[in-house]
Amino acid sequence: MARESRRRSWAEPFKIKVVEPVRMTTREDRRRALDEAGWNTFLLRSREVYIDLLTDSGTSAMSDRQWAGMMIGDEAYAGSENFYHLEQTIQEVYGYPLVVPTHQGRGAEHIISKVLIQPGDVVPGNMYFTTTRLHQELAGGTFADVIIDEAHDPSSEHPFKGDVDLNKVEQLIAKHGADRIPYLSLGVTVNMAGGQPVSLANIKELHGLCSEHGIPIYLDKTRVAENAYFIRDREEGYADKSIADIVHEICSYTEGAWMSGKKDALVNIGGYLALRDQKVFEEASNMVVVYEGLHTYGGLAGRDMEAMAIGIRESVEYDHISARVRQVIYLGEKIASEGVPIVKPVGGHAVFLDARAFLPHVDQDDYPAQRLAAEIYLESGVRTMERGNVSSGRNPQTGENFRPKLELVRITIPRRVYTQSHMDVVAETIWETWDRRSEIKGLDMVFEPTYLRFFQARFRPQE
């Protein structure tokens, strides 16, 4: 008699060898911590946090292979063996021949902006990212959003909301001229859109259009493996392709890339520029000496470069990336099951709450997403972050808030750190906050730094 088939439960594809105890706090503790932190979750101390979902940047758990690699760090000032291992890994996995290491992704953003952008240039991209746009602006450029309109609609179920609208690119070329567009900045698994992927069909079409006008494409491939997972899962013709093959194909349509190794590459610090153009490489190699460190360490210890090289290969293993994305999807579906408004479809690295729909009674200039992130922490000690009016900043000409279409709270999942039980606690915390949403008011900003205000701004709750 054939055995009756049963649906099997999902489990993480790893065993836990080392644990880090976390501290439980009371609601009174958390209210006091919020007041001291100016109601900005970035300013909370980690010891005050129960489940830390502020970011997936540098917060992953490294593997036994990565820790073993740390023990063979070559800390020579010049010509570290670990750099050459990292360089070879990037060449083989991504296909870029030239590598400039940096201390993290924003170091690479800074250098490529300094090398390529001239004052008055326009840099199109599929939705801004905070540090990327700032470096482009500081170099004298102006960012222009060319993402498809569906990306700005949290309820849209479009499977590739990170896609570039080619008509918008053509309009920019017609308006400014291709010679004033130094490159197109292409992000994958677009963070500010809710972790939404880009299709390979769109990348191919974009490559054709940009090649026709002599505009290179530079890739922010910070979460490229997650994007490859969605292509394999959703795009016709890729179901039988490996994650590694899809990643390599994505990169093949671009002239260069920058990466924060603190995400896909599963390390606590590190990044790099990967390039094809020898002239750009030479300028970037010279620039990295000024701002980061010698061109064979770029502000990194040898052990960190070794861990990053190993992590890059782990990032394209199917079991790893499938478990990573599916954990995020699990949390998103569980949160939404109680009617809580989230960005759909669920992205690759985080669940994004639609704060405008969550708190429709709070005006955007009263920072609903910032208040919602604080209230989630107050509820149980779960730390999340704002991705909305505070992150977007101000119009430098008018001084007014940009008031982006998306006002979001990002619930970001570190890789290989938390279990499904932690996800259940997070979902229950969101539900409890949702139940008292009518009581939640806005915030007044009482301190605003000059740049990237979401990191250090301070607020006072409206009571």
Verbal overview:
This protein has 463 residues and is an alpha/beta fold. The protein has two domains: 27-56 and 318-461, Aspartate Aminotransferase, domain 1; 69-315, 3-Layer(aba) Sandwich (Aspartate Aminotransferase, domain 2). It is 39% helix and 12% strand. The chain contains 16 helices and 14 strands. The chain has helices at residues 27-36, 64-70, 81-94, 105-116, 130-138, 166-176, 200-212, 224-234, 243-252, 278-291, 302-315, 318-336, 355-358, 368-380, 389-392, 420-435, and strands spanning 51-52, 98-102, 122-125, 142-145, 184-187, 217-220, 256-260, 271-275, 350-354, 382-383, 385-387, 408-412, 443-447, 458-461. The strands form five sheets. Strands 2-8-7-6-5 form a five-stranded mixed beta sheet, sandwiched between helices. Strand 3, helix 5 (130-138) and strand 4 (142-145) form a beta-alpha-beta unit. Helix 4 (105-116) packs across helix 10 (278-291) and helix 14 (368-380) packs across helix 16. The longest helix has 19 residues, at 318-336. The protein is globular, with a radius of gyration of 22 Å. The N and C termini lie far apart (67 Å). Mean pLDDT is 96; it is low at 1-5.
